[in-house]
Structures are given as structure tokens and as C-alpha cells.
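Sample entry (340 residues):
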Amino acid sequence: MKVRAAGGKFGAVLLDLDGCLLDSNDAHARAWSDALALFGHLVGAQRIRRHIGKGGSELLRDFVAPGEQHLLSDAIGETQTRVFLKGFGRVRAIPGAAAAVRGMRRAHLPVVLASSADRRVVDRALAKLRLTDVLTGAICSDDVEKAKPFHDVFSVAIARYRLSGRRPVAIGDTPYDVAAAHQIGVPCVALASGGFSPRSLASADLHATDLLSLEEGPGPLPMKELEILGVHGLDLRSDDPEALARRWTTLLRVPVLRRTSREIVLARGPEFFVRIRRATRGARTRVTDVHIAIKRERHRKDSKLDDLGGDSRTQRLPGGLGLVLREFRGAPRSFWRAKR
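Predicted structure, serialized as C-alpha cells:
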């Protein structure tokens, strides 16, 4: 596990289930739609989909009148669980996710499942993934009064397994994971594997494609340098321009602006640009250099990347654009240095 805090590695993981370990968010939405229909509420699964990640009672507030919710919340929730478990055999594990958890445990990192799901769903999922004896523990909706987007699932996990002194980090796939973690000051990593839009996950502290890519690590840049550059999750190990562009598009939430035979340009408004220059040598196309431009509100005199083995330079341009340029040359292990 290579996610870092500002002053070192995090010492424990609070891990969500659906969308992180199981590709089950769509199945949950369909089960809620079927359950609500049995109680006279016709709500399409697509409409419910963006609410997946909340606890049952929290989700029903958006679709059922308060009086009916008070009387029928438990019954509708029980029906949803039964419908979901009936089709559980069709739910697939997210590739590499369980292996990533085993890797974290081999690194002696406590991993506690912290989910808004029913206990029966959690037990079936962990048995399917063969993680029952791998995890440090598991907290679910049965253990708390209020599930996500409230912080109770994370708070109980931290207290029960004595993680407060270990600088825990939450890993989830929904905006409700991010909100719940931030309520108690816990940083949150958002995974794209749950199918939520990058915009809905924008407030997360770090972004990754899935659990396996996160466990493999975001690359050689420590968090201090990522904060200076204004980006998170950069992976400089790739020597394939297209793979690098795809990864950064996901991690940095920056769309491709232009693609030619000589370069790929990613841009987010007027604030952030990445130019990946490439050249073909023989049968293989390689990265020749990467330029990054970031707009800053004020000049930062501490923008030095001494740990990377090179000089640093921040320029002030017309219009208040602070331009930080780095080149990435040669082999993937090469360092960045200022573009003079």
C-alpha cells in the first residue's frame, strides 16, 4: 500500500465493499427498484443508481414519504437484501481487488471493511472473495445507527479496532464514502471502479482507477511533491504514451484536448495542462518528455523538487499563470528537471 500522508504512509485502511471489491452497484440499484415496486413505488434502477453507497434508510428518504418510511423502512430494506442475495451468484469480483487486500495484509497494514451493506451481504461477499480471515475486521449497517453518508461506519471501525493512532485512510467509490470520511477528518481515496463520475468524486484526497492500481502505488512522487504540482496519483513508470494518457485521464480527471502522432495534450479549462510528447523508434512509440502547466493564485517560493534530483523553476506569466514545467526523459526511472 503506497498511499502517503503528508508526513509518511497511512497506517490503516477503512475499505468499502460494493464498487471497490465487488462490481455490485448496478445489482444493488436493480434490487432496490424491485423491492420498492413490491411496495407500490415504481422507481427505475437508473434513477436509484446515483444513490447507491448510502445506507438503506438514507437512500429511502429520497423515494418514500417520511410517514411510510418510518413504518416500512425495515421491511423494504429486508426485501432489497433478499432480492439482492437471490441474484448474488451473478455478481462479479473486481479483478485484482481481493489480491490487493491480501498484499496490504502481507505488508502488515490493518484493513477493516467499512460498508453500509447488510451483514448477510458482507458475509456472503467476504466468503466469495475469500477474505473472511484476511481482514482485520468488518463494520456494516447492522453495527451503526446511521450509515453513509454519515460517519458512523468509519467512526465505529476506528474505535472498535483501535486505529486512531495509525492514521487511517478510507477507500471508497462513491461521494458518500468521501463525505463520511471527511466528517471525522479522515482522508479518502476515491476509486473509479464503482462507476461514479469524476465530478461527483472531486472532493476526494486521491483518485485511482481501482484497488489494484492503488495497491501497486501511484508512482515514485511522494505526496509533498504532488501537492506542489497540484495533482495526485501521477504514475511516471509507464513508457507507453497512450497508457500514460489513459491513466492520467482517469486519475487526474483531465480529458484529452488534442492527440497527434507527436503529442497528446490533456487540459482542464485554463487551469491545468499536460503535454505528453512521443516519438517512434523502430516498432515502438515511447515518451520523450512531459510538460505540466498549472495555474496558481499566487507565486510559491517553496516549489522545489530537490528530492527528485533536479532543479525547479516556477515562472510568472501574464494573466497570473504560474507555470511549472518538468521534463520526463529516457527510461521510466528518470527524474524530472526544470525546462529552461
